[in-house]
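Supplementary Methods S3. Complex input for the lactic acid-bound model.
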Amino acid sequence: MDAAAADRVRAALVERLGRESVVVSPEDRRLASADASRMFTDCLAVVRPKDEGEVVALVKAAHELGFTIVPRGAGTSPTGSAAAGAGQVVVDLSRMDRILAVDARDLVAEVEPGVLCGALQARCEEAGLFYPPDPASSRVSTLGGNVATGAGGLRAVKYGVTRDYVLGVRAVLGDGSILDVGGRALKSVVGYDLVRLMVGSEGTLGIFTKLTLKLLPKPESAETLVADFAAVDGAYRGADAVLAAGVLPRALEAMDGEVAAIVADYLGEAADPTLGSRLLVEVDGDREAAARDADRALAALKAAGATNARRAADPAEREKLWRGRRSISPAVYRASPAKKSEDLGVPRSKLGEAVAAIKAAGRAEGVRVIAYGHAGDANLHVNFLYDPAQSGAKERVARTIDRAMDVVLAAGGTISGEHGVGLKKLAAARREISPAALAIMRGVKNLFDPRGVLNPGKAVPAEEDLCAS
Ligand code: LAC
Ligand code: ZN
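Predicted complex, serialized as structure tokens:
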């Protein structure tokens, strides 16, 4: 699309949707095109709809004016699910941010897609309720984005991931029609599970306009424990020991000592140079059950070799520990000129050896590899740090990542536990998804979005990619 055509599309969008909902300044376009993948070029325009009617009008305009649409929550996708480029209009759903209902008796919330995950969590807690999914980004990421990417997070080991809390979805499909599936019934087995299909579809099947989410009663009490180990794999052994002791914590988060040092530096705190690895554990339940589980977990951690295993001293320390955990991603960004991050999953029993094999691959290529992640669900975040100015560094990182994919796939794992495929992982996804499954996925895409206006080229490798393999 040349500059004159782009101007015509912008003018037509303003005419149809009004100045309040259409943003065309170069700065706004650049900001809305980027997500945490840092893969983007400037988009054509940004539409910030105030309601579903404007979303429908936008999809119809896409057909008539010839652009494609990139749905966007808060842009925290590390894989490029929300990255936009030339010829694309970003639909930023942040204005559709009403919590429509929090119903204690139905145990259900109804929200618009732009509600921040943390805002719903807080609202539920005020009402004695609990929305368990808790991506590390929950303070800034939106529920629409969480559902679109099938976000996981810090409490999955006990409570499951976002997918497990989505009861209903209302979405505008690629032809501008509305799909309204699921609802307030906590159980339903009627027809194919289209609700589940929409979860993790990364904006390629529909643009969410309303979500119905399941809630739980709020646990009375939660306790946070921290355990330090001299060995780099100590935290993984500690996580196993806690589960083997019959305790199911709501969080079981491991990090390398190196990662803890990077976070300490980021937060302006002192680092412990002797630390090999650290495990954060959070148990919850009624007061007595949480206290008993904390005691049992501490005993298991000490028996597994923790040099220091203790309860967070007070709510302030608890908050500090979790703030540190949530800061890992931004802290690592600051600690290295460049990083690639992978979000791998393996069967639980393979976690320690997978990390060791990936680090060995890094050493063989001279690439610094650091690891942290959700040890409870064996969902591993490995970061590959490098300096792009060094000749051959990118290639060495690419080879190390390829080797990491070999490791997890050979272990029966997955190339993404929670971040999705986006743009970044299309080649890797082709290694995991069978040709038969890919054909079905492409058929599904075609049913939901026959003319390919919704987030094209993301989430599911295209046919050309398949032929190229
Ligand atoms: C985390 C993000 C990167 O767990 O998934 O911090
Ligand atoms: Zn994570």
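The chain has a mean pLDDT of 96. The first strand starts at residue 22 and ends at 23.
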